[in-house]
Specification:
Layout: E1 19-24, E2 34-40, H1 48-51, E3 55-57, E4 72-80, E5 83-88, E6 92-97, E7 113-119, E8 122-128, H2 129-133, H3 138-169, H4 183-192, H5 195-204, H6 206-214, H7 216-234, H8 238-268, E9 274-280, E10 283-289, E11 291-299, E12 316-321, E13 327-331, H9 333-340
Parallel strand pairs: 5-13, 8-10
Antiparallel strand pairs: 1-2, 1-3, 2-6, 4-5, 4-11, 6-9, 7-8, 9-10, 12-13
Helix pairs in contact: 3-7, 3-8, 5-6, 6-8, 7-8
Length: 343
């Protein structure tokens, strides 16, 4: 992925355009292979010590340094809490995986400062941008998802218990038999039909997305049991119905519970976030975000004001509407530095 950057900020470092490039660890395998995205002037001498542990890879793209029209600013588009935010590229010097940086905690630091890192010889703060903007922390978001999945698992254990009770006693079965209408079925449809939500889940681990999709079949099989087993009971085959129910507990329900457990374990470890290394005057800071998506040019006239009641509005210049109905929140980097990185 190559992203454009204002070359005028680098006249002393390179004669050609500056590009974002992905730096890959050769030994990474399938584990987070691209850990760092940096601004690399193409004519800058390569540090041989760096190249022993990192391999530079680039994609061939046309010249990305097209001139911007007057009143247009280029932004790196990042994601936090399923919303898009824009950081100006002329203040962005590097993007890197948070797992590539060793964060040192600082006693008595504000809740929105995770600690500090050594960035190219300079000690700079790492800002938990979610906390700064008043958004739920990534940790709390993961905890809520784990709590939701645990509750959905308990509901299906109780569902089978209720079905057994109805088979044994003849009492009406009043649980939901349509798999798309139970609480899990509604969550599953809402989640799997939203590409952004699925991307968020995949950020925990690629196996999370696959495990959630794999839940569909055993979940539907469980709900189909009600009609089949209650029909057996109506035909006087109660023992056969109970035997089949117990078999499904040990197979289908166990399969579903294994998938719930796999997702919960991966989510509880947290997802790999990104650090946007920015520079404002003589100050630098690393802003932690969920993900980095793209680059967008925005005209100043297209930036609309936010209501004062909007979450984090004091750190936003406004928003820009997208053709697909979504929007990008434009960060006020100077205001963010004022609070998170005061002089």
């Amino acid at each position: 992925m190559l992203l454009p950057i204002d070359r005028s900020r680098w006249p002393a470092r390179a004669s050609g355009p500056v590009q974002f490039v992905r730096l890959a660890r050769p030994d990474a395998g399938d584990r987070d292979p691209f850990r760092r995205v940096g601004l690399i002037p193409p004519l800058r001498p390569t540090d041989p010590t760096r190249m022993t542990s990192l391999q530079i890879t680039t994609d061939a793209v046309p010249d990305v340094h097209t001139d911007l029209a007057a009143g247009v600013t280029r932004y790196v588009i990042v994601e936090m809490n399923a919303s898009s935010y824009g950081f100006p590229t002329d203040s962005t010097i590097e993007l890197m995986s948070s797992s590539a940086a060793a964060v040192t905690r600082v006693p008595k630091s504000p809740r929105y400062v995770r600690g500090v890192i050594n960035h190219r010889g300079s000690i700079i703060p790492v800002v938990d941008t979610r906390a700064l903007l008043g958004l739920p922390t990534a940790k709390r978001q993961a905890e809520k998802l784990c709590e939701l999945l645990a509750e959905r698992e308990r509901e299906h254990i109780a569902w089978l218990d209720a079905l057994e009770h109805s088979i044994r006693t003849g009492e009406p079965f009043e649980k939901e038999t349509d798999p798309s209408r139970c609480a899990f079925g509604r969550w599953y449809k809402e989640t799997t039909s939203d590409p952004r939500k699925m991307q968020t889940l995949a950020r925990y681990d690629q196996s999370v997305r696959a495990a959630i999709l794999d839940m569909d079949a055993p979940h539907k099989r469980i709900h189909r049991l009600a009609e089949t087993l209650l029909a057996l009971r109506a035909d006087g085959k109660t023992d056969e119905a109970i035997e089949r129910l117990n078999n499904e507990r040990g197979t289908t329900l166990e399969e579903l519970r294994t998938l719930f457990n796999r997702v919960t374990r991966a989510v509880s470890k947290g997802f790999r976030s990104m650090l946007v290394i920015s520079e404002l005057g003589d100050r630098r800071a690393a802003f932690e975000v969920d993900a980095v998506h793209s680059v967008k040019d925005c005209a100043e006239d297209d930036i609309e004001p936010l209501p004062d009641t909007a979450t984090g509005s004091e750190f936003m210049r406004g928003l820009v509407h997208q053709p697909d109905g979504t929007y990008v929140l434009i960060c006020d980097l100077a205001r963010m530095y004022e609070l998170a990185c005061p002089r």
